[in-house]
Amino acid sequence: MSVQYVPTVADLNEIVEQVWASYLDPEGVNPLIPVESAADASDIHASVSITGSWHGHVVVACSNAAGKLAAAAFLAMEPEEVTEADLIDVLGELANIVGGNVKSMLPAGCFVSLPHVVSAPAQANHWPAAVQVCELAGLWSGESIAFSMWQSRELTGEAAA
Amino acid sequence: MTLSAADFAFVSALVRRESSIVLGPGKEYLVEARLIPVARQTGAASVAEFLAAIQRHPDPVGQSRIVDALTTNETSWFRDQDPFTALTTQVLPELIANRAANRHIRVWSAACSSGQEPYSLAIALRETLPAGWTYEILGTDISGEMIERAERGEFSQVEVNRGLPVQKLVHNFERVGAHWRVMPALRRTVTFQRMNLTAPLPALPPFDVIFLRNVLIYFDVETKRSVLRSMGRLLRPDGWLFLGAAETTIGVDDNYERVVAGRTSAYRLRAAVPVGTAGKG
Amino acid sequence: MHAIVIDDSRAMRLILRRILGQLGFDVVEAEDGQAALNVLEGMEQKPDLALVDWNMPNMNGLEFVTAARDNPQLREMTLVMVTTESEQSQIVRALAAGAHEYVIKPFTSGAMVEKLALLGLVPSGASL
User: Fold this and answer.
1) Taking every annotated instance into account, which residue ranges of this chain make up the domain Response regulatory (chain C) (predicted)?
2) Does the ipTM exceed 0.95?
């Protein structure tokens, strides 16, 4: 097998910073502050799956409040106006943007799935057949958000995303 | 808003002393926003704590980080378009006619920030100069951190989105991880040097074109005059100076005259009046 | 000026509509390439500009660009890909298919305005 470049937490951080600069904090005054772990970033999970020469998932997990803040910033509305449909759209698009940029760093010939958004996931670990490659956890306006990459185990263990 | 008046006064005095840039009232919000990441890097809990520490124990590295954070701005490729169009359609054709003997063009991008302007100039010259011609670009900036970044020649996705036509992106850059890196052939034509334009300038061979854009606006009139005078000595007699759209030499330094350059203006040194023909009328 | 925004994400369509609206464009939306061709078919005056996502269900952005290039009625329409696809080879593919410009997600509104200025669709130096 050839050696493949797998994006690191530094790569994830760079992509996430660009998302903040573009949509969530264009003025540069409210950054995502890194923390060791974002245990309460578990109300909503948005993910895309990557297939092809690399198999895995890119996940955006956050608290309800963080999700509403993100949707409000994205859609230029007040957090209390955010509907569930807005939340699903925006977090799905965040997963798509982060996942698409991760894909561009992987060997050629990968594909990104359409985003999949789950509210109130019962368990933190969705993919028993995948291992976490890296995670970037942070606080944004005091609310938890985490970005993570999961790589599917070789061969038969591929789980449905 | 947690920045105290005393902290703001400290920062604006420091920035003015180191860069001659004036941070007037109303910039408190900007100062605080720009210093949050700097404070965090040093491990301070807040901007106020970071500034308190640096005022108690003056520290040149911390001070230069403050100056860097407040004197650098996001820049675009081919920023404002018109000066670059004027360069390729008017200035370079004229220089090509005048420099047939040595076929070499020197351009200075003063206050080049993270490098978008000097690399844009390099792309423009590379695409415009006929075969057999060479060029060199000098990029200078007051910020050592910016010079390091510009020298690396790596730009984020967000940065390459800004004003860089996609054809120029795919011809002049290569994808490296999450970044885009300037191709070596282009990179080699640009050199970088840290330089404070308000201090005495080093001896340099003269330039055919100088881009000094959106710099003078930060200076008071005396500083503007002194910068324009010292740069005039580094501009060839038939060279061209480009300033920002909101800037002019008029009323500041009469050695320059404003000329039309495409859809914008540029500045050229007034011809020295030959001895014996200076009629007083 | 008229524009069509083609993206399967409603959130992204809203962002693009907001930017274009502020620049004075009349905007219609479509959620994939096929839906866009259907909308365009029924339009008397074709849009000046199409902003096109790449990864969409039914018909993706690359297929849409190819179809738009082959349609004489859409020949005047400026095609800008707006996508997370950012490998050099993918960009070259989109340009070969007929895209005029390319904006990589994530993008700032300033970057979008600058790209439209490059295409002569908004005045140089325009801002929101």
Assistant:
1) 2-120
2) no
